[in-house]
Amino acid sequence: MSPYSALIPLLHITRALKEKDMFDDTIVIFISDNGGSLTAVNRTVVHPTGSSNYPLRGDKGTLWEAGSRVPAFISGRNVPKGKTIDAMVHITDIYPTLMNYLDLDTDYLSHDMDGSDQSKLLQMESEETAHEYFIYDIDPVYEQAAIRYGKWKLILGAPATNEVNGRYQPLKKDQTTYEDAGLPLGEYVKKAYGLIGSYKKSLQSAAMCQSVDCFYPEGTTGKVKLYDLSVDEYEFNDQATEHPDIVRQLLAILDEEMKEMIPPVNLLDQGVEAASPNHFNGTWMPWMADDSP
Fold first, then answer.
1. What percent of the chain has pLDDT over 90?
2. Which of 22, 164, 223, 254 is 20 to 30 A removed from 211 (C-alpha atoms)?
C-alpha cells in the first residue's frame, strides 16, 4: 500500500469526526505494527507490494530495524501540535499511555504489562522514554532474539530467517520486481514458505528453549550482533567484539525474559474452521473454552 492510499481512509475518518462535531474529543493515532513487506504472493505469483523501508535494513518479519521501526503520529485534545518525539516508544505503550493521559482508573492495570506509560512524552514534559529496554522478539523455534537497551541493540541468532538482509530502494520505473533491485525473489519465496512449514512442525514437537544458552552455547561465535543505533541506525557496524561487557549485560536480560515466556503453541490447524467468520457474521471468533489448555 502506498503512503498516499494509506492516508485516504484517515482523511475520511477525520472528515466524519468533524462533521459530527466529535473531532475535538477524539485522539487519533496513526501507526503500523511492523515495517513494510517488500513482496506478496498470490498463489504462485510473486509481486512487489510497493513498500519501501529504505534506508533501513531488512524487511517485515526480520529483526533488522526495517522489520519494526515505523513512523507514527498522534493528534487530538491537548496533544501539542507540531512537535516531534525521537524517544524509544513501543506499540504496546498505547494502552497504558492513553489510560493515564485521559485520567482513567489505572489501579487495575497489571504491573507486568509489556507497555509503559509514555504520557509525559506525549505532553512534552519529558524527552526521555519510560522504557529501560524493550524486546523486539524472542523466538525459541528459529532461535533468534533481539533487545534494545538505550542506544544499544543486540541481535542473537539470524536477524532475517528469510535471508532478506539488504537495503532495498523503492522500485524505479524500469524495475518490475525487487529481483531487479537486488532481491532474489525466487529463493526468497522458497525460503519463506519452507520456514513456515518447519516452524509449524517445531511448534508441535520441539521442547521450548527457555535459556540464552540454547541459542548461544558457551564457546559459540558469530551469533551475536551489537549496534549503536544513536550513530548507526542503518546497522552497518557490528560492535559485539568491541563491547563484550554490553553483550553480556543484554544477554543476561534476554535470559531473564526467556524464563518468563509462555510457550508458543500452534493451534491454527485445529481452530480455523471452528473460528471462521462464516459462522459469526463475518468476524473471527475464539473457538476454545476458557479452561482449555
1. 20
2. 164
